[in-house]
Every structure is written in C-alpha cells, then in structure tokens.
Amino acid sequence: MAIISVILQISLYITVTIAQQQSTNPSVSWLYRPSIVYNLDLRHTLLPPQQQRNQSIAVRDDYTYVPGIGAYKVHTRGVPWNEARKTCDEEGGHLVILNSVTEAKKVTELFKKAERFTGSSWPDWVSIGFHDLYAEGEHVTIHGQTLAKAGFSEWVAGEPNDLGKRENCGSLYKNGRLNDHECVTPLGFICELPID
Ligand SMILES: [Ca+2]
Ligand SMILES: [Ca+2]
C-alpha cells in the first residue's frame, strides 16, 4: 500500500506542475487564444460593404486626398452632366457630394486651383452630384438624399431658378455655392472617392 500511495502522490505532483506551467507559460497560453486570432482575421469581412469597398481602393495620384473628408479630382474638360457622372463612376467614385460646410470649402479650394478648363460653357461652374431629375424642385444627391440631409444646401443668390424650366442638374460656383443648370451644358466636374 505504501508503494501505491507514493505513486499516487507523484502523479498528483506531476498534474499540479503541468497545470501551473499552462497558466504561466506564455507559449502554452497561446494555445488558448485561437478564437481571438480568428476574430481579428475576420475583422475586415465583418465591416459594412461600403467600408469593405473603400479598403480596396488604392491611393491614386490623380486625386487629392483630404484626411477625414474625402479624395477629389477636378476634371477640366467640359462635358454634359451625365457623361461626368459616368466618368466618375468609371474611376471608382461618384460626382462629388457635399456633406458639410467644411467639405464644400475644401472642394471649392481645389476647384479654384484648377486651371485651363477646356470645352466648358462656364469655367466658373462645375457639375457635382445632385439633381432634380426625379421631381422638379426636389433636389437630391446622386445617392438619393435631400441636400439638407446630405449636409450642404447653400445656394447662389436667386438659385435654384430652373431657368427656362430646363435646369435639372447640380453645379458648384467658384464662390462655393450651389446652382441648377441645364444637364446638356458642358461643364468641368469634380469626382469624389470615399475614404475612411
Ligand atoms: Ca429643375
Ligand atoms: Ca440655375
């Protein structure tokens, strides 16, 4: 019986020693973190679709990045609003949507710096991402929000005037305010790439 008792005590000692090592040895404790590592790896795929798409956009040297706000490109070749819209889409972005006074100021600064507008009927104006093509007088962004909800709705004095009952596309004047213009009028335009 004495021998059995000694064997049991040795077994107990070994068990306790292994348990202590598992709780204090970092290399052993890693074995108990696989679920955490797994979740970190999944973090990207758990983001909303819009943010996943943004992560795949590489930095482009033809766009100006404004940290925390967006990335912008002023196109100086005048084209009708719908052609401008499609060009921005082909670049992975959209006609710029102004979501704040700050963004409107930054975009206007970039507009003013741009030179040599060609083929534009009015170089002091550029097409941006809003219209009232769905319902006259209901100006919405190309993503469907009212301008007030989007965050910027400061118009040039006397605008929108729907001149000739034909002005249904959105533009930005060099003073940083909005206008409605005829969609077929060739204007320069500004594209935006959303950034995180
Ligand atoms: Ca209109
Ligand atoms: Ca107008």
Task: Describe the structure in your own words.
- The protein is an alpha+beta fold and 196 residues long.
- It has 2 domains: 2-49; 56-193, Mannose-Binding Protein A, subunit A (Mannose-Binding Protein A, Chain A), CATH 3.10.100.
- The chain is built from 7 helices and 8 strands, in the order ααααββαβαββαβββ.
- Strands 1, 2, 3, 4, 5, 6, 7 and 8 form an 8-stranded mixed beta sheet that branches.
- The radius of gyration is 30 Å and the shape is globular.
- The structure holds calcium ion (2 copies).
- One calcium ion is lined by residues 159-161, 163, 167, 179-181.
- One calcium ion binds next to strand 6.
Produce the secondary structure layout.
Blueprint: H1 2-24, H2 26-29, H3 34-46, H4 49-55, E1 64-66, E2 70-79, H5 81-90, E3 94-95, H6 101-113, E4 125-131, E5 140-141, H7 147-150, E6 167-173, E7 178-182, E8 187-193
Parallel strand pairs: 4-8
Antiparallel strand pairs: 1-2, 2-8, 3-8, 4-5, 4-6, 6-7
Overall domain count = 2
CATH class term of the largest domain: Alpha Beta
Gross morphology is globular
CATH architecture of the largest domain: Roll
Tally of separate helices: 7
Major β-sheet annotation: 8 strands, mixed
The rounded Rg comes to: 30 Å
Model regions low in confidence, pLDDT < 50 over at least 5 residues: 10-53
How much of the residues is beta strand, in percent?
15-25%
What is the name of the CATH topology of the largest domain?
A: Mannose-Binding Protein A, Chain A
The beta-strand count equals: 8
Structural class: alpha+beta
CATH superfamily of the largest domain: Mannose-Binding Protein A, subunit A
